[in-house]
Amino acid sequence: MGYRALYRVWRPQQFTDLVGQQLITQTLKNAIAAKQTSHAYLFTGPRGTGKTSAAKIFAKAINCHFQKNGEPCNQCEICRAITEGRLNDVIEIDAASNNSVDEIRDIREKVKYAPTQADYKIYIIDEVHMLSTGAFNALLKTLEEPPANVIFILATTEPYKIPATIISRTQRFDFHRINDQTLIKRMEYILKQEKVTFDPAALEVIAKAAAGGMRDALSMLDQVLSFGNHQATLKDALLVTGSVAQEQLAAYLRAVFSQQAAPAFQQIQQLLADGKDPNQLFEGLIDYCRQLLLQQTVFKDQKGESNQVLISLAKKIPTKVIYQALDILSQEQQAMRFATHQEVYLDVATVKLCQLKSNDRAATTAPAEAEITKLQTEVMTLKKQLDQLVQRSKPEEKPVHEPKKVSVTKQTKIQPNLKAIYTVLGSASRESLDELKDVWQDLMAKLSVTQRAIMNVSQPVAASQTAAVISFQYAFLFEKAVENQQLQTQLVTDLASLLGRQVKLTFLPQEQWPQIRKNYLKEYQHNKAESTKSVTKQAVSAKNSQALAAQKIWGKDAEKLVEFKDD
Amino acid sequence: MGKKDIIARQPRLTAYFADLIQHKKLVHAYLLTGPAGSGKHELALWVAAGLFCQHPVKGQPCGKCGECQRIFSGNHPDVIDLLPAGNSIKVEQTRFLKSEFNSSGVESRQKIIIIENAEKMTASAANSLLKFIEEPSGQITVFLLVASLNQLLPTIVSRCQLFKMQLPSEEQRIQTYQQEGLNTLLAGLTVDIQTARQLADEKTVLELSKRLTQWFLKILNNEWLALVDVQVKFMPLITNKDEQNLFIQLLELFSKDLLRCAIGTKMVYFQDQALQFKQRLTKYSLTKQLTAVELLLNQPRLQQENINFQNLLEALTLQLIKCYHG
Amino acid sequence: MKFSIKRTAFIQRLTNVQRTIASKTTIPILTGIKLTLTNEKLILTGSDSDISIEAAIIKSDDNAQLEIEETGATVLPARFFSEIIKKLPGDTFSLNTFENQQTQILAGKSIFKVNGISAEEYPHLPEIEISQKITLAADLLKKVINQTVIAASNQESRPILTGVHLTIYQGQLTAVATDSHRLSQRKIPLDINDLNYDVIVPSRSLIELARMLPDSSEKVELRISENQMLCFFDQTVFYSRLLEGNYPDTAQLIPNNSETELEVNANDFLAAIDRASLLSHEGNYNIVKLTLDPKQQLAKIYGNSPEVGTINEVLNFESLTGKSLEISFNPDYMKDALHSFGQTTVKINFTQPLRPFTLTPSENQSNFIQLITPVRTF
Q1: N or C: less crowded end of chain A, CB within 10 Å?
Q2: What's the domain range around C105?
């Protein structure tokens, strides 16, 4: 085999090599140089931050006879023996497998034996949080009355599991996560020593993924090198760390923030197919959003070198939206933790993110609210007028209606009001439809039983702010609804009370809906195409838009007129 | 488990490891992650065979020689395979492992240690392995195999090189399963076609999924009988933790399909009733449909909180009815 | 494979091999016993992967009456096989293996059929060139083992110390063991000069080997490969795996100067220590104190248990020179060390109260040394 992992080859052998923990290493060096060491130390901190390395360097420095300024010489027999782990007086105990009371008692007894070769006997107890309560108590005794020339170094990643009585008898050093810059610097140093070419961007990706752990960083670097035939490329770094390239994150966010669900989904699919992990995607997206926020707030006015994509995206998206996006992302990431099919949560997040901006616009456009209240009052007055109207016309209408109905059924089928439908389609939006769908069930609940019998098979298929197209599963119910004036009035008033605005309803049978929509699209495109071509056609479309405008002005009445005409 | 098979399934990783074997650049610890049936164990054995094979071709094992055969039959004394004893890998087992870490091989110095389901190591077992995984003496390569990284100690992960098994995409899987005459739902449950066949034969999964769709249709129709379904239809088929997990997985797949429905694409796992769902669901707004999906997707988390499973599903039923029918 | 053999001779070999076969193992084939039949002999092999034993029965052995009909090899389930052989009727039995590894065992009127496994599947034990051998007397090897394994550690925390460090260098074999509180080192001259080895053998294996070695000066052969140590004796090959890692540099531990020197009869001193430890075992710390006063020519041993009482004993000694000294140590270590010397006088060399002291036989001081670390009592 003969290949040794980088983190093993480049394990720090003196305090200076132990990067990212200057405060700690300086304190320890001073203590050794001044011969003022404690008899017990507690080293805590996340994995790969140098706890065990520091402990071993400490063991060397305090026992080395050629120690300079608290640094071991690493040349003498004692230093070498400690480095190779074969000095009897430096006892490394892994508390996980020696965690019983008996085993700690054994230490307590053996502590009394004088060192065989070195000046100090050093006990390095790793993963000390794994000791049982009994074992901690046994250890406590030893820490209380330590024999001279014995030093305990306890190391753990989980300090909160250490009893306070132990902590209070030790000098505690908290090792911190190593920041990205320090990790990168160390990797650069190692790569230069190993004479390996590298892409700085690759190191950045690795540093980010290592999350403050030097060993993590070097393990990943090793893997990148093994892929890249002894050179560190960004591509391999992304592959090894499973990180997602900044451009891909940006592309995804650009898609969702402009409500383009399709490309966003495609992006997700591609990333998952490349073997990216949903969790890392979430991490990446959250980090990118964080960068956007930073760009908007902290770095607003500086940084020429920063990447343009980020800056342009940061300019485009309102801060509030980014906050909301962060909420959605972290919420889904949380929910995902215990799931087997984590990619679903990504999909959910995508859909939610795509909805963001529109909601936001509705919420932020303050004038709209005033408009709504104004409209509401208007509606109320109109409604009153209408009610009066309906009541007055009731007695006469009934007889008039019946023959008509007969004649209608005898005649060919009632045709849907195409013009009205086209009008709706002209200004239809997904949000309006959603809004309508949300209240549809409530609307149904307000109807009488007979009315509900007609409307039960209906559903909104398109809607604008002011009008909607309702489709009926069965043609005869559609006809019934078209004829039932009272029902229509009821629907419109109820809807107004639910939505806070007037919405005109146009009915159609479901079977015709696909065709009508198709025709509309064709005509719409046709119009569009034509309008660019010839002036005459332009006039026509102008006329069209005039008609639309007129309808908009006339509102409900116009609609009614049209319907009656059709009747 | 032929050797050809693993090369076809993991072309990238087999090529990578063959190269390392050839140039003697294997490091001391690898972590392979991927769902059951993704070929982790086969890959680890394949690498072991590559190391020991008498006639390797560019780091690839021949698969025929005595060494290869002994490795694949589990009889090679220097290829050690550790499986959880019962539900977890306990300290006693890691003791044995540690003695293996410290001694030379039986036949040569080269050794391979494979720890299957490494996430099942108890905390103390995992902790006690740390030192040995970090600095093994001798020519040892350790393969830790896990389904998901989440459950593994970060201190273990940072000592290993991490590899994710390549998986066929959902589409490819569905296609293959369809060609094999298997229900597409199974493609969501396992990447291993053998397991899929087994599941199809056992019928529980398909029966559960059928009942699941019926239950959901009732909810959409605002039928309160859906609530009774939980006790009458589901619980008899969900008697242990494994079946609970299975059902939770079905819910996840189902919500995946519901989401597809909401954004206007085709349902793929629950194809049989797809049309009925589509008809009933289109009248709901996207927001409402999303809320329902999220209710379903909340279940994996809730399941972890030791709530009685039946209560969990009944609560879900009520929440869904409320969501759809106000 | 086809042969017939006398049952008693077979059982004797089988028992030797079977002691290594573990009932629980991760490698299924190791629950089996391998039979190999060549034109000259029948070889039985058993292994628990740490220790493997091959025992041969040769054709020329009159006690065995081995009749070889057809050579071959197979692996049979050890437990069943040995039960079967032990319960067979008659003095001899014959064994016949067919192509599909099915094996027929015939004795008198009973026929057993046992399913075997292909011998190809069985671990291949290393073969080492015969030229690389080290020859020494069985009883000497046994002594070397027994004198050193006592100091080996039985703790897992430093696995390397559970072994005995064997170095063969310039015609000398050095065996050292230490648990980091005591050390035992034995050197013996060899009749070869050109071989150099440096290996660590698990003490468990060595203890097992010592148990099997004959108590005679019969020659045994040691051979060492990169991963196993082999020992040949009496038609038996004993294999042990080696430990991997760096053994402490023990040469550094042994002090080469001395401030105080005590010479005592090992047996007398052992008896005195034994008496003192009666009380020390009762206390929290298992310690006895030795006071040496060369000026007054006085050596005293003191044991104490706060609950029970104390013991004071003035020692008989051959000589006492150097500075006066007070030193405390674990009496059990001292007892183990003294035991290993047998009936002889030993020289104990002290430097300082807190530095390890050594025990050597008065004659031939360089061949055998025991080192004990004192205990701090202040």
Answers
A1: C
A2: 2-121
C225 lies in the same domain as C263: no
Ramachandran sector of residue A130 (left: φ over 0; alpha: ψ -120 to 50; beta: rest): alpha
Residues of chain A above pLDDT 90, percent: 26
For residue B251, what is the enclosing H or E element? helix B241-262
Specify the pLDDT at position A544.
Answer: 54
CA distance A447 to A441: 10
Residues 40-69 of B with CB under 8 A from C: 66, 69
Per-residue confidence band for A533, with pLDDT thresholds at 50, 70 and 90: low
Q: Are the beta carbons of A94 and B127 separated by less than 8 Å?
A: yes
Does residue A337 belong to the interface with chain B, where contact is any CB pair within 8 Å?
yes
Distance from C-alpha of C108 to C-alpha of C41, rounded to nearest angstrom: 24
- Per-residue pLDDT tens digits for C44-97: 999 998 999 999 999 988 888 999 999 999 999 998 899 999 998 889 999 999
What is the arithmetic mean of pLDDT over B59-80?
Answer: 89
Q: How far apart are CA A379 and CA A494, in angstroms?
A: 11
Residue A531's pLDDT band (cuts 50, 70, 90): low
pLDDT at A372: 62
Token pair of A542 as six digits: 């102008």
What is the interface pTM, i.e. ipTM, of the complex? 0.82
Within a domain: residue C32? yes
Question: Using CA atoms, how far apart are residues A393 and A396, in angstroms rounded to an integer?
Answer: 6
- Give me the phi and psi of C28, to 5 degrees please: -55, -40
Using 50, 70 and 90 to split pLDDT, how confident is the model at A362? very low
The answer to whether B70 contacts chain C (CB < 8 Å) is yes
Q: Is the CB of residue B29 less than 8 Å from the CB of residue A215? A: no
Same domain, A461 and A489: yes
Closest CA to A146 of A185, A112, A187, A178: A112
Tell me: do C246 and C134 sit in the same domain. Answer: yes
Residues C117, C140: one domain? no
Closest residue in B to A100 (Cα) is B124
Clarify whether residues A208 and A87 are in a common domain: no
* Cα dist from A352 to A327, A349, B287, B291, C63, whole Å: 11, 5, 9, 10, 88
Q: Give the pLDDT confidence score for residue A555 in this predicted structure.
A: 44
User: Which B residues, 124 through 143, put their C-beta within 8 Å of a C-beta on chain C?
Assistant: 136-138, 140
Instruction: State the residue range of the domain holding A218.
Output: 180-241
| Band of pLDDT at residue C22, cut at 50, 70 and 90 | confident
Q: How far is CA A490 from CA A386, A399, A496, B192, B326, in A?
A: 11, 21, 10, 58, 21
Contacts of A351 in chain B (CB under 8 A): 259, 262-263, 286, 290
Sheet holding C110-115, edge to edge: C67-70, C2-6, C92-97, C102-107, C110-115
pLDDT at A565: 36
Residue C11 pLDDT > 90: yes
- Predicted TM-score (pTM) of the model is 0.76
Instruction: Note whether A43 and A175 are within 8 A (CB).
Output: yes
* Cβ neighbours of C286 in A, within 8 Å: 109
> Measuring CA to CA, which residue among A98, A101, A152 is closest to residue A127?
A98
Taking the Cβ of residue A422 and every Cβ of chain B, the question of whether any pair is shorter than 8 Å is answered with: no
Judge if A99 and A130 occupy the same domain. yes
The DSSP-derived string for B166-222 is P---HHHHHHHHHHTT--THHHHH-S-HHHHHHHHHH-HHHHHHHHHHHHHHHHHTT
Half-sphere exposure of B171 (CA within 13 A, CB side): 5
Nearest to C245 among B73, B77, B102 (CB): B102
* Mean pLDDT of chain A, nearest integer: 80
Q: Does B81 touch chain C (CB under 8 A)?
A: yes
The reply to whether A373 falls in a domain is no
Share of chain C above pLDDT 90, in %: 61
Summarised one tens digit per residue, pLDDT across range C169-182 is 988 999 999 998 89
